[in-house]
Amino acid sequence: MSHYPDFSEVQTFILFVGYPRSGHSLLGALLDAHPHAIVSHELDAIDKLKEGYPQEQLYQAIVDQAKAFKAGGSKWMGYSYQIPGTEQAWSDQLTHIGDKRGGTTSRHLENDWSMLEKIQSWGVSLKIIHLTRNPFDCISTAIKKREAEQQRSFSSVDVRRKADHFFRKAKSVDVLIQSGQYEVYTMTHEKMIRDFHVEMTHLLQFLGLPPLPDYLASCEQAIFSGPNKSRTASSHWSEENRAYVQEQMSAFPFFSHYSFDE
Asked: What is the phi/psi pair of residue 186, to 5°?
């Protein structure tokens, strides 16, 4: 008997676009815990498609990656993303499948959307999730990680280079949204934390997944008490660096409500 679920009822393929350190791992784990969905952690589905994976093989790779992540305790970057009280109920209930790798997917889509067209050619609905978080927090956390890896303190030049990498992904996402060719749902990490039931229910409606009360109650147990404002612990936000990032943010409507202080 195959250790893979029945893929015959899959109706929707889910992808993430966006930025590292924006809350994708938490949201991906929440969706993977839904009894009608499997969402792998950091598989890089677009890259697999570029390698030539056919539909069935990609679906199997997603299942393998999701299982491996859970078997390892659902741990990533020092956090556990285990959703208490949820067990994957596959069989004929599986209607949604996808992959969570937002930053890398955004980079893949800078100049080539052919893999999105390939997914749609399978006759499934492609749903793209764009999760935002305060850019100052995303950049601050990314800098902290790189400084630890490289064992050095970043200069202002390094900070701005890191910011440029972030906004290059934002440009890729903005072009995708503005094209109107694909269904892209933008939600904010901060709102999801503050008003989980409302925000998660809206996302599930976009995806076409039922907002099951027991499922939502289990997911809420994994939600942080509040968004981590990592920018406040960073020593890199001089007036000049703040102004540089704020100016870059102003080019994107989905960042219009963010600032260093909010």
From this structure: -100, 125
Answer yes or no: are the C-beta atoms of 128 and 15 closer than 8 Å.
yes
DSSP string, 122-181: TTPEEEEEEEE--HHHHHHHHHHHHHHHHTS---HHHHHHHHHHHHHHHHHHHHHHHH-S
Task: For residue 200, give both structure tokens.
Answer: 């998660």
Domains and CATH numbers, the chain: 12-255 (3.40.50.300)
Residues 127 and 207: their CA atoms lie apart, in Å, by 7
| pTM beyond 0.85 | yes
- Nearest residue to 143 (alpha-carbon basis) of 231, 229, 24: 231
**Residues 182/116, Cβ–Cβ less than 8 Å:** yes
Per-residue pLDDT tens for 142-187?
Answer: 999 899 999 999 999 999 999 999 999 999 999 999 999 999 999 9
3 state SS of 191: helix
Taking the CA atoms of residue 21, residue 26, residue 29 and residue 34 in that order, the dihedral angle to the nearest 10 degrees is -140
Residue 65 near residue 52 (C-beta atoms within 8 A): no
d(Cα 68, Cα 74) in Å, to the nearest integer?
A: 9
**Paired residues of 76 in beta bridges:** 79
Please answer whether residues 49 and 115 qualify as being in contact, where contact means their C-beta atoms are separated by less than 8 angstroms: yes
The continuous run of DSSP H or E covering 188 comes out as strand 183-188
